[in-house]
Amino acid sequence: MAEYKTKQKSDVVSYLEKNAGKHITASKIALDMNNEGIHIGMATIYRTLEKLVDEGMVKKYFIGENDGACFEYIDKKNSCKHPNCFHLKCEKCGKLIHLDCHEMSHLITHINSDHGFIIDPMRTIFYGICQSCQQKANWRNI
Amino acid sequence: MAEYKTKQKSDVVSYLEKNAGKHITASKIALDMNNEGIHIGMATIYRTLEKLVDEGMVKKYFIGENDGACFEYIDKKNSCKHPNCFHLKCEKCGKLIHLDCHEMSHLITHINSDHGFIIDPMRTIFYGICQSCQQKANWRNI
DNA sequence: TTGCGTGCAAAGGTTTTGCATGGCA
DNA sequence: TGCCATGCAAAACCTTTGCACGCAA
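Above: the input entities. Below: the structure tokens describing the complete assembly.
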């Protein structure tokens, strides 16, 4: 069960590191790396991503719509140790907002004690509309 | 652009009504209805669901994992005029749990007024570990 | 009759799998 | 040398689309 260090895997990892915080599909990874002259087969990309997700280095989620699953590099150094750290993602502009608010610890405690569910803040994203997009929506009357 | 009333559409609607609050894939709809002796083509199911989503009668989710998109009937009379309806998804067993709790309206108000972000509860999923998986984890010492 | 809805089949995507080959240890 | 990782192609899916036919109005 030993793991080998291969060029392909480290290429994928460094690509993801460079794009930390972005949400990237498997095909976009292949495309971008191709443009850099690195060709990696789709199967390898998927197999590598699967491992990285297991290791916790990458988060996989489904925002659906046209493309498939999205992957995002999780920077363990910069990411928050406090369990108050959530993310807000704007559905209009795609902006990802950091939320570090102690109000959130109430939420976690409540859902744990009253609903028996332990929230994983790192994996949870609140979807909605950010402030600037709300204003745009107002003046466009959307 | 007139809409016709067809047996297939009303069958799908009544199936979804019977399963209000559940999260159902298109193929499960086809399978279940087949077991009831009703055969509807996949294309029709997808086209019907698309319309129902546009009408707001059904919500479409991407919770990913093995299956495709999930659909859920939205009962306008009973549920979710209050934005208290969230979903908890267990990362171990994949179970999707409904959470209809007043506490959540505090959360929404807080994030709106203090952080300028309007949460869309129907699209937001809390990831974490459910109660039964916590217990399994305990006895297995995972 | 009109034209939307349906069913079938085929196409378009993404993701997985089998198998021979390549490359790390 | 072992054995995992890779690449290619094919398969397995989910979902969409084209087209002829059926059926509601």
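Note for the figure: Chain A has two domains: 1-77, 80-142.
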